[in-house]
């Protein structure tokens, strides 16, 4: 059986609340900060800022960073699972994920707890856009970030995670 690369979406309350979408590529997590989080509506284009690669071990991190190379603030694992690369070239040949990212368009199928279906990151100048592909998992009526605020690991909201650290509780 071949290896299925992982993905994780972490909600991070740093200087500004945002969702970090991370996809495993060549042993690291390629990462985009998405301020408004993913949308299930294919007509919605979400700003995504390409950020530094993260170690694979970071995929399960929840807690509160004081001073970290990854940014301060509370972090929860909002969603996680595996993904399949769907990126094709003009001849319909599969394009390797690192090459797709380098070329500025990466299409993938998520198999998560909250997010399923096809998505695409597309570079537009310095930044990127995240768009839900029209498929059976698209749902313009559901605001997934509002109706699913809790961590899939701890069950905490981002506010509860921050409060637990302030109160000196284990996270």
Automatic annotation (TrEMBL):
Superkingdom of the source? Answer: Bacteria
What Pfam families does the record tag this protein with?
LigD_N
Q: Which InterPro entries match?
A: LigD_PE_domain
Q: Which residues form the DNA ligase D 3'-phosphoesterase domain?
A: 10-123
Q: What is this protein called?
A: 3'-phosphoesterase
């Amino acid at each position: 059986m071949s290896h299925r690369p992982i993905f994780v979406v972490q909600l991070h309350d740093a200087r500004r609340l945002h969702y970090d979408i991370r996809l495993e590529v060549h042993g690291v997590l390629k990462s985009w900060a998405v301020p408004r989080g993913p949308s299930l509506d294919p007509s919605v284009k979400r700003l995504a800022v390409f950020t530094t690669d993260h170690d694979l071990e970071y995929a399960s991190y929840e807690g509160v960073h004081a001073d970290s190379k990854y940014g301060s603030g509370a972090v929860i694992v909002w969603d996680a699972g595996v993904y399949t690369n769907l990126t094709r070239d003009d001849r319909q040949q599969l394009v390797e994920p690192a090459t797709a990212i380098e070329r500025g368009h990466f299409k993938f199928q998520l198999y998560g707890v909250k997010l399923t279906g096809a998505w695409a990151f597309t570079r537009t100048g310095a930044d990127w856009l995240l768009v839900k592909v029209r498929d059976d998992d698209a749902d313009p009526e559901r605001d997934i970030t509002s109706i699913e605020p809790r961590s899939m690991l701890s069950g905490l909201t981002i506010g509860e995670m921050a409060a637990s650290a302030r109160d000196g509780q284990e996270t």
